[in-house]
C-alpha cells in the first residue's frame, strides 16, 4: 500500500507540473489545450459530451448536449485552478488522469 501511495503522489506531482507547463504554453499561443473529450450519452442523433480544456491558469470541464434537433447547450461547467485539478481528477478516475498525463507529455515535448 505504501508503494501505491508513493506512486500516486508522484503521478499527482508530475501531472501538476505538466499542467503548469501546459498553462504557460496556452499563455504564449493563446490557444487552449483540450485534455480530453468523452461522449457520455447518445440517443439517436443527439449526444452529451464532456470536454476538459486547459486554459491559462485553469482547467474547465463542460458538459455539452448537442446533435439532432437539439441546439448545442452547456449543461454544466466546472472551473478548477490548475493546482486543485489533479486531486479532483484522481478522485474521479485514475485512468482518465493517466490519459491526461500521457497526452500532455506527448503535446509538450
Total count of helical runs of at least 4 residues: 3
Estimated share of beta-strand residues: 35-45%
Please identify the oligomeric state.
Answer: single chain
* Strand line-up of the largest beta sheet: 1-2-3-4
Q: What structural category characterises the helix and strand content?
A: alpha+beta
Name the helix and strand elements from N-terminus to C-terminus, one letter apiece: HEEEEHH
- Main sheet properties: 4 strands, antiparallel
Number of domains: 1
Coarse morphology = globular
Characterise this structure.
The chain is an alpha+beta fold and 109 residues long. The chain has one domain. Helices cover 46% and strands 39% of the residues. The protein has three helices and four strands, in the order αββββαα. The chain has a four-stranded antiparallel beta sheet. A hairpin with a 2-residue loop joins strand 3 and strand 4. Helix 1 crosses helix 3. The model has no long low-confidence stretch (mean pLDDT 91).
Amino acid at each position: 500500500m505504501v508503494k501505491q501511495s508513493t506512486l500516486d503522489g508522484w503521478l499527482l506531482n508530475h501531472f501538476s507540473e505538466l499542467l503548469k507547463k501546459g498553462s504557460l504554453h496556452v499563455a504564449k499561443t493563446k490557444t487552449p489545450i483540450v485534455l480530453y473529450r468523452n461522449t457520455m450519452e447518445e440517443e439517436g442523433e443527439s449526444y452529451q459530451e464532456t470536454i476538459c480544456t486547459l486554459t491559462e491558469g485553469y482547467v474547465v470541464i463542460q458538459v455539452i448536449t448537442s446533435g439532432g434537433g437539439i441546439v448545442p447547450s452547456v449543461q454544466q461547467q466546472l472551473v478548477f485552478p490548475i493546482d486543485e485539478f489533479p486531486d479532483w481528477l484522481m478522485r474521479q478516475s485514475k485512468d482518465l488522469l493517466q490519459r491526461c498525463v500521457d497526452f500532455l507529455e506527448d503535446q509538450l515535448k
